[in-house]
Amino acid sequence: MSRRPEVRCVEEEGPLGKLIIVPKGLENVVPDTTAISGVDPKGEHTIYRGYLITDLAENANFYEAAYLFLYGQLPCEDELREIKRKIDTYRAQVPEKLFDALKLVPATHPMYYGSFGVLFLGQYYAPEWRFDDDFLYDHALRLIAQLPVIFAAGWHLSRHGTFIRPDPGLDHPRDVLRMITGRTPSDLAARAFEVSLILYMDHGFNASTFTVRVIGSTLSDMYSAVAGGIGALKGPLHGGANEKAIEMLLDAKRRAEELGKPLEEYIEEYILEKLKRKERIMGFGHRIYKIHDPRTDVAAKYIRQLKDGEWWLKVLKRAEEVMWREKRLPANIDFYTAVLYYQLGIPVPMYTPVFAMGRVVGWTAHYIEQVKNNRLIRPTEKYVGPTGLKYRPIEERCRR
Length: 400
Ligand SMILES: CC(C)(COP(=O)(O)OP(=O)(O)OC[C@H]1O[C@@H](n2cnc3c(N)ncnc32)[C@H](O)[C@@H]1OP(=O)(O)O)[C@@H](O)C(=O)NCCC(=O)NCCS
Fold this sequence. Notes:
The chain is mainly α.
């Protein structure tokens, strides 16, 4: 069953030729092809370079998935060793000057540390940008390795004046989670975190990836493009939803406790009240997944095994039943990672940065795909403002 709206494009003559007027928000509009990720023909699954996202999230590790995105196939042993060596080495090589610069940034939402730090790295490593393969892939790996360090260091520096240095001897996901929480994670926690990063790595032409491609299409550098992607991801309608979702769930939990009601029952009343006030329920709805987001099934498996997992799943399922009954909207991955990250002890403002730590893999792969087969992305507009006005000096136009 598909509930996708019909694509309705209108053609009309414009001043410079035919205009194609597409649906607002570009829903169902295809501005280009990609071999990186997309939706399967039934519209039920996301495919990463030919593989179902759920297959990779359950079976691959971070390095294998990153290799697949960048180079188009899963690595052999020597290739895997090499990408792991590079990511782990680069993670430990964030320039000291960047840590000094982060100390000057006032306490703010950590997504800003990401865009700030990435632009710093761009100037530091590559003031002269190039487009040859060695150069592009090397900088993609630096970004993948170093963005998490920037976020974690920025977060801790702004709050405690110190930060946790990377340990190149640990696997990337385990080390990143350690730098965020300050504790060495258990195997289960490290794997749950790794799986969430893989689930977040890419998703077709989502808003932040499209932003990256637009910036890439101007032949600007990869660091500027990724900084733009971070800006787009920060919004509550995109990556910011996982933070908003946990804030909502914790608010509901507090109120349920005050009322002496179990949250798994009270959540219904809570959501209905919000809907009555015409508020959006964060973590529900999706441009692509209209019935079910399969990424939630993978996240649920890990939620179940972590603290209070069965109870949290009851709460999530009840919320999903209510939202489906009332609005015909499914939960998306952010509703589930919101709980998973809470269980892992990640501070709430770091949830969207964690999304970016996974998505940077997709951003860099899309940047490379874009610049290798480039045409400037520059839509046109349909101007609906006034015409024919004539400039008048200020004393004439402001006479009352
Ligand atoms: C993801 C999202 C932006 C997709 O939106 P979209 O395809 O552009 O759909 P629209 O924003 O046009 O919304 C269509 C209708 O569904 C409603 N709707 C969409 N998401 C909703 C939500 N989470 N809660 C309540 N109502 C919602 C809208 O109010 C609108 O209703 P109306 O037609 O009565 O005005 C949207 O579902 C949303 O805002 N979700 C919450 C944020 C979120 O979880 N984002 C993460 C996505 S992975």
